[in-house]
């Protein structure tokens, strides 16, 4: 393809001068999605993508592998439990309740997104049964915008008794006993905040079921930072209220508790647990009267401490489960219907999950929970009133999601529920390797390849490297389809993630962001040097923060990669704070308003490092028009810049999808997106 065949995109002389340095922005006009110029350009890009796209090679196989469906862990309320499941023919998971009736219980659907909206555009964002299991709060959004609207239904009848309550995006629901009221988080009305701040300004409220939201009492958040996120929970007995506050996505939180027997629910007397401390901490009020503290304070791989609820401050904490030198402590559950109560502790050791058993009184390790294999474990759940059983999700690269049940009386783990669809999963070979990054740091990578034969093969390298999010093994129809067709798929556990604890995260954020890109380049070089693939057969893929990763990779080392899929990316790191939820991420990346931090951002911002005459890899941008987290303008501007600049012969294409957003989507849309991206990679890498 020649550059002349790309849609016309005028380069303007727009530039900002920041801290005395000019910052060109020739495609700023693409920041306005409603301008006629942008609309014409997007139509032309869609026509180009259609002309350049080959017939989807992987669609039927991805769809077949996704017919496994899915299943979620149970939330118990007495003998009644709630869970989610997606059957092979369903577009979205359905949320069910199971009533005890002897044999296996009677199952009823409570929230079915397709019944609410047959178009498939409505997604179920969150659910929370009340403490007795009589009421269910759920949140839905439409078209991918993630602007959750809250409803409450009667579980027995399915009757809607509350809602819609809007402005509830990312809201926890903390029920008080009896189901008469709950705490929740809601944004201020748009009439009370500037237009460009409507995504922010959250507050904690108390809502009494059956009353107008106009009567809700603001509990917390007034006068605090507009980008704060709040967590709120109430202990099972209703005595203890817990409120946390985090500035954006910062890896730290302030924390308060209130005794609701000593102060009223609408005027709780909050007591500081930690404030202004660079650590993340959460509390669990045990049935035994002890307060359990899950924290990375003075323990970057996390630990569990205990104290008395009347003394929640740091000075009273004592270690129960100390920090492990290698594994990251992810969660825990308490089983107390035993002669000697125990704590189950979930860990990830170099991205692989395990669960250990400890004496609840002393913390001494006394055993290990059997797990199905080397994979990922979801959160461990127990009955709120106590018991001897626990449930946890499990998946690995060839196992669709399952729910496992552990019985502490027998020490056995058994399959409680499998994904409902039977699928023929291909045989693959999975290995975890260790390679060395540019500064000598050891980094791990999972390599999934065909069960037989040797390389070099067409390979896709995937990474994320941000926000402390770990890349752990999981079932993926897209990965399995690629490997079954003869390719290799590699997932690097880059700095910036959480695979090795909070220190690992911080080694890839703010001033240290370049470490993430260096780890990724080193992963690519390792795959080439060990004969897994060649530079001409190597593609890279990433989305969101991972889109920033591959955007930086293709501008820093265009020689190293043959093809790129860049999805919902951040790419203009000078102006990212001005759009979507960008203002909540300056705690991860830094702010261009600060001279030093501007220097960090400018050093790698992909959009600002596109140079004319460079042979850039073939690149496919996939973006979602309703994305309210990362605005599609990042990909639009970068696409125009690359189309103008590249001297390479690989195409620069844009797949712009409407009525979907950054997160959940229907299965059919998932299949189409995966098939398009794999088909692009196969064409460019020669699979």
What does this entry show, briefly?
The chain is of the alpha+beta class and 687 residues long. The chain is 17% helix and 34% strand.
Q: What are its keywords?
A:
hydrolase; alpha+beta; 11 helices; 687 residues; five-stranded antiparallel beta sheet; 34% strand
* Secondary structure tally, helices: 11
User: What strand order characterises the main sheet?
Assistant: 32-33-35-34-36-37-38-39
Whole-number average pLDDT?
96
Q: What kind of sheet is the major sheet?
A: 8 strands, mixed
* Helical fraction: 10-25%
Radius of gyration: 25 Å
For the secondary structure, the number of strands is 39
Low-confidence stretches: none
Shape: globular
Distance between the termini: 20 Å
Strand content: 25-35%
Helix- and strand-based class? Answer: alpha+beta
Q: Would you give an account of this structure?
A:
- This protein is α+β, with helices and mostly antiparallel strands.
- Helices cover 17% and strands 34% of the residues.
- It is built from 11 helices and 39 strands.
- The strands form 9 sheets. The protein has an 8-stranded mixed sheet, with helices on both faces.
- α2 crosses α11 (667-685).
- The protein starts with 14 loop residues before the first strand and ends with a helix.
What is the topological layout?
Layout: E1 15-18, E2 21-24, H1 36-52, H2 59-66, E3 70-71, E4 75-77, E5 80-86, E6 94-99, E7 106-111, H3 113-116, E8 122-129, E9 135-142, E10 149-154, E11 160-165, E12 173-175, E13 181-187, E14 202-208, E15 217-220, E16 228-234, E17 240-247, E18 254-259, E19 271-274, E20 281-285, E21 291-295, E22 303-307, E23 318-321, E24 327-335, E25 342-349, E26 352-359, E27 365-368, E28 376-377, E29 389-396, E30 399-407, E31 412-418, E32 428-436, E33 442-450, E34 459-462, H4 477-484, E35 488-492, H5 502-506, H6 514-529, E36 538-543, H7 545-556, E37 563-567, H8 586-589, H9 595-604, E38 618-624, H10 633-645, E39 652-657, H11 667-685
Helix pairs in contact: 2-4, 2-11, 6-7
Region (Disordered): 1-32
Domain Peptidase S9A N-terminal: 7-417
Keywords: Hydrolase
């Amino acid at each position: 393809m020649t550059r002349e065949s790309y849609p016309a995109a005028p380069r303007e002389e727009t530039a900002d001068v920041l801290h005395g340095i000019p910052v060109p922005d020739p495609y700023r006009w693409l920041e306005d999605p409603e301008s006629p110029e942008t609309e014409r350009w997007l139509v032309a890009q869609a026509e180009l993508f259609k002309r350049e796209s080959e017939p989807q090679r992987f669609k039927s196989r991805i769809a077949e592998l996704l017919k496994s469906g899915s299943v979620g862990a149970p939330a118990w309320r007495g003998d009644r439990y709630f869970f989610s499941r997606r059957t092979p023919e369903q577009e979205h998971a359905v949320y069910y309740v199971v009533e005890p009736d002897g044999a296996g219980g009677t199952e009823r659907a409570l929230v079915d997104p397709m019944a609410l909206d047959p178009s498939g555009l409505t997604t179920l964002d969150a659910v929370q049964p009340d403490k007795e299991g009589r009421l269910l709060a759920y949140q839905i959004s439409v078209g991918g915008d993630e602007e959750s609207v809250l409803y409450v239904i009667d579980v027995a009848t399915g009757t809607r008794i509350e809602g819609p309550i809007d402005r509830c995006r990312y809201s926890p629901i903390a029920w008080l006993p009896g189901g008469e009221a709950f705490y929740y988080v809601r944004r201020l009305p748009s009439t009370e905040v500037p237009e460009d701040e409507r995504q922010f300004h959250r507050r904690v409220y108390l809502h009494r079921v059956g009353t107008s939201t106009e009567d809700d009492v603001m509990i917390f958040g007034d006068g605090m930072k507009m980008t704060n996120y709040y967590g709120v929970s109430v202990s099972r007995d209703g005595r203890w209220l817990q409120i946390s506050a985090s500035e954006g996505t910062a890896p730290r939180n302030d924390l308060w508790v209130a005794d609701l027997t000593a102060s009223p629910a609408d005027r709780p007397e909050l007591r500081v647990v930690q404030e202004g401390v660079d650590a993340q901490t959460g509390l669990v009020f045990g049935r035994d009267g002890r307060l359990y503290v899950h924290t990375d304070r003075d323990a970057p791989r996390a630990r569990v401490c205990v104290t008395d609820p009347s003394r929640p401050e740091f000075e009273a904490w004592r270690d129960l489960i100390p920090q492990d030198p290698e594994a990251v402590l992810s969660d825990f559950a308490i089983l107390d219907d035993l002669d000697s109560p125990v704590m189950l502790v979930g860990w990830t050791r170099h991205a692989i999950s395990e669960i250990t058993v400890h004496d609840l009184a002393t913390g001494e390790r006394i055993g290990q929970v059997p797990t199905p294999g080397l994979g990922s474990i979801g959160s461990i759940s127990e009955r709120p009133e106590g018991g001897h059983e626990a449930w946890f999700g499990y998946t690995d690269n060839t196992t669709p999601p399952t729910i496992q049940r552990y019985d502490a009386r027998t020490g056995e783990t058994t399959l409680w529920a499998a994904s409902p669809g039977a699928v023929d999963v291909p045989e693959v070979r999975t290995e975890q390797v260790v390679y060395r990054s540019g500064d000598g740091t050891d980094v791990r990578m999972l390599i999934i390849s065909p069960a037989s034969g040797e390389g070099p093969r067409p390979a896709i390298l995937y990474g994320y490297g941000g926000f402390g999010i770990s890349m752990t093994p999981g079932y993926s129809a897209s990965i399995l389809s690629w490997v079954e067709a003869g390719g290799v798929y590699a997932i690097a556990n880059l700095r910036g993630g959480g695979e090795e604890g909070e220190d690992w995260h911080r080694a890839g954020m703010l001033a240290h962001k370049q470490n993430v890109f260096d780890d990724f380049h080193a992963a690519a070089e390792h795959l080439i040097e060990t004969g897994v693939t060649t530079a001409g057969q190597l593609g890279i893929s990433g989305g969101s923060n991972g889109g920033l990763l591959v955007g930086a990779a293709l501008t820093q080392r265009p020689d190293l990669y043959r093809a790129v899929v860049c999805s919902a990316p951040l790419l203009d790191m000078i102006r990212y704070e001005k759009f979507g939820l960008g203002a909540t991420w300056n705690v991860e990346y830094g702010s261009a308003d600060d001279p030093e931090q501007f220097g960090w951002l400018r050093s790698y911002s992909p959009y600002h490092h596109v140079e004319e005459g460079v042979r850039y890899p073939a690149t496919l941008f996939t973006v979602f028009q309703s994305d309210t987290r990362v605005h599609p303008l990042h990909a639009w501007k970068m696409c125009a810049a690359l189309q103008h600049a590249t001297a390479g012969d690989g195409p620069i294409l844009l797949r712009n999808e409407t009525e979907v957003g950054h997160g959940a989507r229907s299965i059919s849309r998932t299949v189409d997106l995966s098939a398009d991206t794999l088909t692009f990679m196969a064409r460019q890498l020669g699979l």
